[in-house]
Amino acid sequence: YKTTKGKAKNIPKFPTTESKPEMYWGDSAEMRRIRTIIERVAVTDANILITGENGTGKEVLAREIHRLSTRCRKTMVSLDMGAIPETLFESELFGHVKGAFTDARTDREGKMESATGSTLFMDEIANLPLHLQSKMLVVLQNRAVTRLGANEAKPIDIRLISATNRDLHDAVAKGEFRQDLLFRINTIHINIPPLRNRKDDIVPLAEMFIARYAQKYNKEGLLLSGDAAEKLKIHPWEGNIRELQNAMETAVIMCDSDIISPEHIELHTPSLPLNEKQTLEDIERQGIANAISQCGGNLSQVAQQLGITRQTLYNKIKRYGL
């Protein structure tokens, strides 16, 4: 998230295609501690695992790490394991050759090849199936990738940043994630605290989003009233920064004056009892949130429990800011 706060200290300057900072660090003690760690490790090639609830800004942090790295001359390559069908995981990650499967009409490089000389960001890495975890471990150890259907391995040079909202140590204990792969991707572990634990950052973040969307919708100069700020501070923000961003965009659109008041801010209260006043969307949102909690963030299990595809589930998570 964009900010005008000071740049990270003691970071060498490199020509970059992503020179504009997006990360909002805030003033909380935990975020200051994380910033100190990032300043130390960004310029190395150490693999980093970022954990945290949905909506806490894991990809934004990954982009900031890449921006401050020696690999910033090339664009970071992203792969969201929660947004692609499981049948395409192997092809997306490792690539394929023509004829490797029915629809493989041409050779195609995977994300690992595309990220050579740069950073590969793998979001929702806990969704990677066990049989592909072993192949990925070999790729990381040998620094070479073999496309699906090919015999020859191609050398790669990547810096891996992974992210998940799951406890991977728990996943290892359940036999759902390889311990040796966890060791390989977890050289540095960063856990982003939820927004409800960063109370001092809520209003500055809200004002930053207001300024952004006020410019977008030609309503520059909008201010947040004191009562509106208090309303934001007491909300639990289950959807974290993503939920706050969505709420502020809606508030800017709905505001018909120069001041954003409490009535302009639409917030969804979690864990509401079912009653006749709830909409179907309220019920669906709460049902998905409950399933995510029950399944420990395992989206494959959540989709199976709800009887929907992983892609449909992922779309709904984005829609409801979960």
Brief write-up:
The protein has 13 helices and 11 strands.
What would you note in describing this structure?
This protein is globular. Helix content is 42%, strand content 11%. Helix 8 packs across helix 10 (240-254) and helix 11 (280-294) packs across helix 12. It is of the alpha/beta class. The strands form four sheets. The protein has a five-stranded parallel sheet with strand order 2-5-8-1-9. The chain is built from 13 helices and eleven strands.
Helix residue percentage: 40-55%
Strand-pairing-aware structural class: alpha/beta
Q: Report the span from N to C terminus.
A: 18 Å
The largest pleated sheet is described as: 5 strands, parallel
Q: What shape does the CA trace take?
A: globular
Which strands sit side by side, in order, in the main sheet?
2-5-8-1-9
User: What's the average pLDDT?
Assistant: 86
Count of separate DSSP helical elements: 13
Number of strands: 11
Radius of gyration: 21 Å
Task: Record the SSE blueprint.
Elements: H1 29-41, E1 48-51, H2 58-67, E2 77-80, H3 89-94, E3 95-96, E4 108-109, H4 111-114, E5 119-123, H5 130-142, E6 144-146, E7 153-155, E8 159-164, H6 168-173, H7 179-185, E9 188-191, H8 199-216, E10 223-224, H9 226-234, H10 240-254, E11 259-260, H11 280-294, H12 299-306, H13 310-320
Parallel strand pairs: 1-8, 1-9, 2-5, 5-8, 10-11
Antiparallel strand pairs: 3-4, 6-7
Helix pairs in contact: 8-10, 11-12, 12-13
